[in-house]
Amino acid sequence: MDTSVLLTLRDPAGIPFYPVVFQALYILTWALHAAFVLLALGAMGLSLYGTFKQKEDPHWKIMTPHLIQTGKLSVSLLIVLGVAPLLFTQVIYDPNWYTTNALSGMWVFIFIYLLIAAYMLYYWYYYANKAKDGGGKMIGTISFALFVFAGVLMHNFAVTSIMPNEWMNMYAPNGVVDNSGWTFNVEFIRLIFLVSLAVPVVGIFLQNYSRFLSTREDFSKEFIAYTASLGTKLGMVGLIISAVAFVAWMMQIGYLMHPVIIATIVGVLILLFLVATNRNSYITTGVLVVVALLISGVRELTRYDLMANLGYNIYDYPVNLEIPTIVMFLLTFLIMGGVGIAFLLTLAWKVGKSEGVFDGSKDAAVTRLGTYTLAIMSLWMVTFFGWGMSILFKNIL
Amino acid sequence: MDIIGQFPLFYFPEYGSAWIMGVTGTIHILASHTSVGAAMLFAFLAYKAYKENRTDLYSYMKRYGMFILIFAYVIGSITGTGIWYTATAASPRGISALIHNFVWVWATEWVFFVYEVIGVFAVVYFIDKIDKKTHLKLTFTFAIASVGTLALIIGIISFMMWPGTEAYYTTGSASDAFFGINTFPHMFLRVGFMIMMSGIIGMVISSSMRKENEALSNELTRKMGFVSLLGGFITLFFFMWYMGTLPENAHAVFNVTKESIIQNRIILAILFSLYFLLAIVRPKTINTVLASSMVVIILIAGLWPGEKLRESMRKPYVAGQYIYSNQIVSRDVPGKRIKGELPVIAEKGLLQVNPFVPENLKVITAENKHEAGKLLARLACSNCHSLEKTGVYRPLKERLTGMDKESIKAILYAIGAGGMNYMPALQLPEDEYDALAEYLASQKY
């Protein structure tokens, strides 16, 4: 695609802050989103296996509903966390984003309703399994298949967006315009790599699960040992498969010797060692976060290079600085988001560790965090209305 | 400027592509308004349960919570993202304009959204796992976070209608765009609707509890009747204020169907007022079938026409009164250094300036005239009108019935000259007018 066209496709309003900030936020939030996509797929897949073992095996009897619940929560989180990279990518890569969505318009439409159907069926699976051990196999499998297909569609959007030289052929092959929105592209190795990551992610999750429950007296030592060992096996096998697929993908696109790729491979090897030894799965999770950020960085690196080679450099995007709203975002993100999420996670952690009712009013950390969150949110609302009224008065009077 | 930043066109036959956004949007509004309304209602119920030591209210909250988790949050969160996706496919430059003006507002909303989604699980699942005081605090923060998502999105969708003053066009400031003259009335109109929806859904839940606890079921149904009545009153009150803040083109569209709209709203207001009064006076008579039917009625007879009307009243614009529905920048916005694209289109033609028009259709010839006309119709008209003879959504067949080429051309000239304030003032070179009119006439509407 011609450079001048790519540059013209940028929004005429420019961007309201420096492009590198959007790029960094994209890498960060995509990694968060992907983590829950992979955990959802891994937990769902493993729970389906569990439905076959649940009746006879006491370990799977406990673990299966927990895995189903984990899948359920992860889908909600992957959706909410997916909004952010979606936002940031279309700020700096708008030519890619909008062209792709128009070319694949029908798939975009299908994607949304497919996801709704998959999630509704998942709730059905959850209730069917709750009602009867081993229940909901069929519904769970259909739901899982729909989620996987939704993932393939997302992959299609990502791949199409980095094929600018092919866009014109996709839209008007042989000069005949096709407005149908059925464009579909797949890169198998890249797809296999990304999907394969679900296995090590659920493996590491199981190690954490085992470690977290080890302090609870209502879970047996055998169960704790079994889940840890299963986590280790899944983690190791999964990491090896993912590593092979990653190397194959990098060789395919000629990036194998790039420093970021080497750093990613080193990260995976460290992860493999930590998973195999399973001394402290919380540290392993920390390293997993770093590796996830590196993988997100690799995706962005390849896209950035590809577009820059076509003359579209995101760092040259015209900037129209917009200060008040970024101040609002940063303060909300860092203060309200930080304190608020800390409140919710601390509460969840302590509830999970307790047998019976957890009395948060006697816990200093929970009480303080809750009060601060409430105060910050109230202050936020007052500020919002004050700001709005002053702008309105300025512009109307 | 030889080309303009137009994207490939996605066209859904018979309906046009905009309706897919409308359907997704309407479903989202039902789900999201219910969830925010429910969050406010939960705050009220949790406060009552804590202050009056009413532990029975928690079972209602738990059941209500599970219901909104499955329906409002699953559907609401996916269709929320879905509006973005479908809008991107149907109206890329419209959504791009919003994104590039309001990215930080949206990012802020995302922070609230994350809190809201994690929070709803905590509020529902921790009901019997934490003490009442902590649960109350949690519920309050959840309610504020939910209202926060509304506070942040409302300025963006209000800007889609118009900012209402010239400030934004000269400063380019997101604050001037966000806090337009219709932002607050629009916000409270929706707050009212959310409160009403929380009551309407609340009656579905309370009526389903009758077998287990009749006294509680009746008490809550009565309460939901009051809640809905209050919400309905707020909605109507702010609707009047909101209508007074809309631009001329919106009123021009509104006036076309004003009488039937008002009639429809009066019937709905009476029907639902009677329903709410019945819930207050005779809560026993509200059963799950009736309560669920009222949800369907409000979706089909209230929300869908309401959202269609709001979308129609924006015409010919899709965002900020500077982007037309057919993805053309209609005016300069000096504050953002944006240049209007109408002059270059009038001079060179839509086919020449659109980078995704294939070379063989850039110049109109006798051989390609029909194809060029067809593409022009899609580029210029299909965002609002379905083009086929069997078209369903604002079909051209109803507007151009029995017209020949010259009559159609006369209409196109009038539109191009700005003669209809709800249509884009899109002037084309003569050969494009001719090809477009010939193609439309060939359809024999």
Describe the structure.
The complex is a heterodimer of chains A (397) and B (445). In chain A, 45% of the residues are buried. Chain A has two domains: 3-321, no CATH class; 323-397. The radius of gyration of chain A is 23 Å and the shape is globular. The longest helix of chain A is centred in the first third of the chain and has 35 residues, at 19-53. Chain A has helices at residues 3-8, 19-53, 58-92, 94-103, 105-131, 137-161, 164-171, 188-196, 198-213, 221-253, 259-277, 281-309, 323-353, 364-396. Chain A is mainly α. By secondary structure, chain B is mainly α. Chain B is elongated, with a radius of gyration of 25 Å. The two termini of chain B are 37 Å apart. The model of chain B has no long low-confidence stretch (mean pLDDT 94). Classes of the chains: A mainly alpha (397), B mainly alpha (445). At the A-B interface, helix 1, helix 3, helix 4, helix 5 and helix 7 of A face helix 2, helix 3, helix 4 and helix 6 of B.
Secondary structure: helix percent of chain B: 55-70%
Q: What series of H and E elements makes up the topology of chain A? A: HHHHHHHHHHHHHH
Q: Give, in spatial order, the strands making up the sheet with the most strands of chain B.
A: 1-2
Order of helix and strand elements from N to C terminus of chain B: HHHHHHHHHHHEEHHHHHH
Distance between the termini of chain B: 37 Å
Low-pLDDT runs of 5+ residues of chain A are none
Subunit organisation of the chains: heterodimer
Structural class assignment of chain A: mainly alpha
Average pLDDT of chain B, to the nearest integer? 94
Number of helices of chain A: 14
The tally of beta strands of chain A, per DSSP, is 0
Report the sheet with the most strands of chain B, covering strand number, pairing sense and barrel closure. 2 strands, antiparallel
Average pLDDT, all residues of chain A: 96
Biggest interface between chains: A-B, 101 and 98 residues
End-to-end separation of chain A: 49 Å
Number of domains of chain A: 2
Specify the helix fraction band of chain A: over 70%
Measured on Cα atoms, how large is the radius of gyration of chain B?
A: 25 Å
Question: What spatial form of chain A do the alpha-carbon principal axes imply?
Answer: globular
Tally of separate domains of chain B: 2
- Overall outline of chain B: elongated
